[in-house]
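sanity check this record:
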Amino acid sequence: MKKYKKKKYTKKPGQSRQEAYSGYTDDTAEGAAERPSSGISGKRPPRKKKKRKKKRYLLKFFILLIVCMAAHYFLHSSVFDIDRILVSEEGRFTAEQVEDMIGLKRGINLFEFKAGDCEEKLMENPYIKGAEIKRKLPRTVEIYLDERKEKAAFAEDEHYIIVDSEGIVLRTTDQRPKLPILIGMTVTKAAENKQIVVKEAYSFKKAMELLAAMEESDLYFKTIDVSRLIVRLYVTDKLFCKGEAKNLLIGMEEGNLKAVLYDLYKKKIKKGIVNVGDDQYYSFSKKIK
């Protein structure tokens, strides 16, 4: 490639600028001093630093791969074989029953089962509301269960549908359970592990509220009849309380109803009607209609 160098010029009188200016001259023209070659070509030499960096990254990758493989084989070795399975508390199910539900046995590696899948299997049982499974190194599995409790039963034809406090269906039985029986509602659907569906939605809501208040006030009624506006709470077949649901709820929450029933118990009165009116007015009649 030719190189040029700029000439100095002097403008004479009557001479144009273009004529005075000679422009650039060939630096290699005759009489021009040749510049010594620098010995450097136009191409850049390959960068060795990049190659070194690539080698380092590759080495690090292989080291990481070896570490991961070693960790995998170590975690899946017999060092972590399960030898204890603990259930949080003794409820409806024994530890052996819980193990059978999820297919978890001693001797299985601690990391060779999916805790989430096991929790889902447990919650397929209507009596289990929630489940949590934890691994405890080196060989222990801890299982925490949140169980549903039987609270009442719906009378349906010749059988009873057992539910919890939220109306979740737990099971069906032909024998009368030792639970409050809810009557006065028409059951339209009763699938296990689902909330029972009744035709009278408002009556269902009243029944659940009365059931919760009964437990909170430490009272027990063998039958709760919500078939009419005036609700009946049966202590025995021949002794019951009656009134609007709102008045009965207030009576249980404030302890008035419990005090009245306890007074009847002390007097050994086993037959009659306790009427609960507005403003917590109570009256008692021995005649059962």
Summary: The domain at 81-147 is CATH 3.10.20.310 (Ubiquitin-like (UB roll)).
